[in-house]
């Protein structure tokens, strides 16, 4: 089979995969009910396969792809019944004109006109009435009290009508001209029955409008005509695919049917599925009146079927009627409608291709869209994997997660719930003036699993016959890479997840690294002031022996300590230097053991203690983990064993608890595959029992990174390989008695190798994870964030590219939830350098124009504290009611109405609050500000002093 051209633009493989699923599978076809939910009979018929339309097959058994067919010639057979004759005006000439006029003579346009418009000239649908038949039985005989959908009741069903009509008309009709794709089958047959369609009434003695195949019904098979296939060696033209359609209008009593239902059913002939939920008694109308393949059959307002709505962005892209551009970077777009030749734009987290994504299009009241509720931007949330899996059974929008959902600007979700079939408030900006949508607005652009996509549509502005929108595809605030000053050595290989950088009280970042210069590894430190550039590097270790595997911690005030493994005595020992008031004190030897001390990992606990763990291998023995609580500046440590004698631990990780204890985690290589173990060390009772971190799932757990939040919960991440793909798994332990209690979850699943994870928790409990990903043979830096509310980013953000060098020793240094600095080494060839990259979402968040809030009366449920507010002090915004507002986001605006910041309400200890950090309020000029629910008018006044 030959696939049709989709687009010359970049397309997602998932999107193409969904196309293939439809091409080689089935498309299902029913008109949506005019009122109420979808009846159960539709679901039963769909499950039985009678509403499935597969690709037509050639006499030789091959196939033809109907999606690629731009030209159609449709034969129409008119049938009435002894108990229901055609209306007086239902003539052959009427239907030829109403359906297939090409001259523009019809008042509202024909089916031919509609598809020329919808496809931007790419599809041509012509046809003619070829026969007029009186059926031998009354209509109730075929409807059989089930709208003709009884699969097993042949001939008392729709199949019975089609079969009788073809037998009665075959002698007078030459079917050969209606096979334009030359596969020996009539491309599509329309049978128009007298009366109204079953979709327009609750009475089951009418026939439901469907598109189907004769071969899918009980005792059914394709009809073989008496007309030879030209050049077919005596084979006869056959008929299998058909649509059953009504004579009378469902909206105007006594009038002949409008083109809406004809266009909808022909959408199925082209290969489109229904975009409403076809499962029984469902109310999800998908895009509703905004799409031909849902209730837009009856017009953009639901009551003008003579002017059916456009199929929409997804359908147009699917059929190759519109080019698709996948946005990989932040962009400002000017959109035209698809019917006018506009492009469909797709975007998602990080500009990456994948099954889940958003799609946008501009719609205006032109052409057949003249009855739309409003004009503006439509935003669709799609999952091509779900669409592809459900196409064959016509369940695109069935289930808890629809394959295609309209992001309704009013955030009500009434299309999914069935409270509406489409209204003016669905579109952006619409009558509500919604000019922005992102992760934290209502509605939002979060992924189906609730994770953050960091995408946004901003400054949505209609421009007459077009629309401008700013599309953000990457997280806010990532600044350009910075190369640190000073001569750098080549970054040395470092095993384990020991912390190598920290932020001290005055905001300075102190970072340690291991670098090879003139063939010798040295420990280097660099310092970045809170508001200045990085300083020049300083060598910490003395002598010419190798110094590797540094770990660094802030130890109170503006002081810091660094510990490393040093080989100056032959076997490796641990050395330390302490920084006091900005000056590095002399070296201190911490260990004097006969074996080798490697992979130190150090962490402070906030109570004045520093916890240290390392791997020690005695002469001729097996490795073990030793732990000591260190007083910075002391000359020796008294270690205690953590791992059992039978253990073979690899490089450890350590995380401090708020109560003065710590967790030690390690990969255990005494088992195959390696498994993760941990032990809790209490300041009073010492080393606790050793426990497995997670159940054995058969995959190797060869490394681990960990952190503890302010509530004492241990968080751990580790790399593994599952089915040939690299994954990062995440696990949380809420307390000291836990172990194997919580299943782990998968954060990353990538084709490239993953290694050297680091995990940090900031003071509010937000998490920052980094790792190396092998991209194009080069290690690149990737970052992923988890909010204080426990919501992870949808995926990781690529910080470096292969051309930026081979990255290693990555260390995140968080300041707050929205501000973090990454420090890492990078080498290109034999030349090394050190780099940093900072994300500051506060500084780069663009002010949004907003109406000036009224200073009085104050909001009854919103309070700001402290007020007056001093610059540099955290502003706490509290919602006094037990139920949060619909738009669960609080914004601060200045006197000119410019939005300074928006923060989500989070429930903390039973109270809904939002916090604006002091580092942000310090940047605001003194003056009067207003705090309000996002988009609201009533506000709390805040006076900012400096």
TrEMBL record:
Residues 1-29 form the signal peptide. Keywords: Hydrolase, Metalloprotease, Protease, Signal. Residues 92-309 form the Peptidase M6-like domain. This is M6 family metalloprotease domain-containing protein. One of its GO terms (biological process) is proteolysis. InterPro entries: Peptidase_M6-like_domain. The keyword Signal applies. Coiled coil: none annotated. GO terms for molecular function: metallopeptidase activity. Pfam families: Peptidase_M6. It comes from Eiseniibacteriota bacterium. It comes from the Bacteria.
């Amino acid at each position: 089979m030959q696939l049709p051209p989709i687009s010359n633009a970049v397309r997602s493989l998932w999107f193409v995969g969904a196309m293939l699923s439809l091409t080689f599978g089935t498309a299902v076809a029913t008109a949506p009910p005019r009122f109420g939910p979808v009846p159960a009979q539709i679901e039963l018929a769909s499950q039985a396969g009678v509403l499935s339309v597969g690709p037509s097959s050639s006499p030789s058994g091959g196939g033809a792809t109907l999606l690629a067919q731009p030209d159609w010639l449709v034969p129409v057979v008119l049938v009435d019944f002894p108990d229901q004759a055609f209306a007086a005006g239902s003539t052959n000439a009427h239907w030829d004109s109403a359906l297939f006029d090409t001259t523009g003579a019809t008042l509202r346009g024909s089916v031919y006109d509609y598809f020329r418009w919808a496809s931007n000239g790419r599809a041509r649908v012509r046809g003619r009435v070829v026969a007029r038949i009186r059926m031998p039985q009354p209509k109730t005989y075929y409807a059989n009290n089930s709208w003709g959908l009884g699969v097993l009741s042949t001939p008392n069903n729709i199949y019975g009508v089609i079969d009788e009509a073809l037998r009665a008309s075959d002698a007078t009709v030459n079917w050969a001209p209606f096979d334009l794709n030359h596969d020996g089958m009539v491309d599509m047959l329309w049978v128009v029955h007298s009366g109204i369609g079953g979709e327009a009434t609750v009475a089951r003695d009418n026939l439901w409008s469907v598109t189907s195949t004769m071969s899918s019904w009980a005792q059914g098979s394709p009809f073989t005509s008496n007309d030879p296939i030209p050049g077919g060696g005596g084979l006869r033209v056959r008929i299998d695919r058909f649509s059953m359609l009504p004579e009378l209008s469902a909206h105007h009593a006594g009038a002949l049917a409008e083109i809406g239902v004809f266009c909808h059913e022909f959408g199925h002939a082209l290969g489109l599925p229904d975009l409403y939920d076809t499962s029984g008694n469902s109310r999800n109308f998908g895009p509703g009146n905004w799409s031909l393949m849902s209730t837009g059959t009856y017009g953009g307002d639901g009551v003008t079927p003579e002017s059916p709505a456009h199929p929409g962005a997804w359908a147009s892209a699917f059929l190759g009627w519109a080019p698709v551009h996948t946005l990989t970077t932040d962009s400002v777009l000017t959109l035209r409608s698809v019917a006018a030749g506009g492009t469909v734009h797709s975007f998602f987290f990080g500009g990456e291709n994948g099954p889940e994504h958003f799609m946008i299009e501009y719609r205006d009241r032109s052409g057949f869209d003249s009855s739309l509720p409003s004009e503006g931007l439509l935003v669709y949330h799609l999952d091509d994997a779900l669409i592809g899996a459900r196409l064959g059974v016509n369940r695109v929008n069935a289930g808890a997660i629809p394959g295609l959902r309209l992001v309704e600007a009013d955030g009500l979700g009434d299309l999914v719930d069935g409270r509406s079939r489409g209204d003016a408030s669905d579109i952006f900006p619409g009558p509500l003036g919604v000019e922005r949508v992102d992760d934290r607005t209502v509605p939002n652009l979060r992924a189906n699993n609730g994770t953050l996509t960091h995408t946004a549509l901003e400054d949505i502005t209609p421009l007459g016959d077009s629309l401008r929108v700013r599309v953000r595809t990457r997280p806010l605030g990532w600044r350009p890479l910075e190369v640190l000053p000073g001569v750098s050595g080549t970054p040395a290989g470092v095993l384990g997840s020991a912390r190598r950088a920290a932020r001290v009280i005055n905001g300075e970042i102190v970072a340690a690294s291991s670098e090879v210069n003139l063939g010798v590894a040295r420990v280097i430190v660099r310092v970045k002031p809170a508001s200045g550039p990085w300083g020049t590097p300083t060598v910490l270790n003395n002598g010419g022996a190798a110094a590797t595997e540094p770990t660094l911690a802030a130890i109170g005030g503006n002081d810091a300590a660094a510990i490393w493994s040093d080989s100056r005595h032959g076997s490796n020992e641990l050395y330390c230097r302490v920084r006091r008031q900005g000056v590095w004190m002399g070296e201190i030897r911490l260990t004097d053991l006969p074996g080798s001390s490697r992979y130190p990992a150090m962490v402070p606990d906030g109570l004045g203690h520093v916890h240290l763990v390392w791997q020690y291998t005695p002469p001729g023995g097996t490795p073990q983990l030793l732990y000591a609580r260190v007083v910075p500046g002391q000359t020796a440590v008294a270690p205690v064993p953590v791992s059992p004698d039978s253990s073979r631990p690899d490089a450890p990780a350590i995380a401090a608890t708020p109560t003065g204890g710590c967790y030690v985690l390690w990969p255990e290589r005494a088992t195959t595959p390696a498994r993760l173990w941990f032990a809790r060390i209490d300041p009073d009772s010492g080393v606790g029992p050793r426990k497995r971190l997670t159940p054995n799932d058969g995959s190797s757990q060869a490394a681990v990174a960990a952190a503890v939040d302010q509530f004492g919960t241990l968080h751990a991440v580790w790399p593994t390989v599952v089915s040939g793909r690299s994954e990062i798994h995440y696990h949380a332990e809420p307390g000291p008695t836990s172990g194997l209690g919580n299943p782990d979850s998968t954060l990353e699943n990538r084709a490239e190798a993953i290694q050297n994870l680091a995990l940090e928790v900031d003071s509010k409990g937000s998490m920052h994870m980094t790792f190396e990903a092998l991209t194009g043979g080069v290690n690149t830096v990737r970052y992923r964030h988890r909010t204080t509310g426990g919501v992870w980013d949808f995926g990781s953000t690529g910080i470096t590219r292969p051309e930026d060098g081979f990255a290693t020793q990555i260390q995140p240094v968080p300041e707050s939830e929205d501000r973090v600095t990454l420090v890492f080494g990078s080498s290109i060839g034999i030349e090394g350098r050190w780099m940093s990259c900072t994300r500051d979402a506060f500084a780069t968040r663009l002010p949004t124009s907003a109406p000036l809030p009224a200073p009085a009366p104050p909001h009854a449920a919103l309070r700001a504290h402290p007020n007056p507010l001093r610059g540099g002090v955290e502003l706490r915004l509290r919602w006094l009611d037990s139920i949060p507002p619909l738009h669960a986001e609080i914004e601060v605006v200045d006197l000119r109405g410019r939005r300074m910041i928006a923060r989500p309400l989070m429930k903390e200890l039973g109270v809904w609050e939002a916090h604006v950090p002091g580092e942000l309020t310090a940047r605001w000029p003194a003056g009067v500000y207003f705090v309000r629910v996002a988009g609201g008018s009533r506000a709390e006044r805040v006076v900012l002093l400096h």
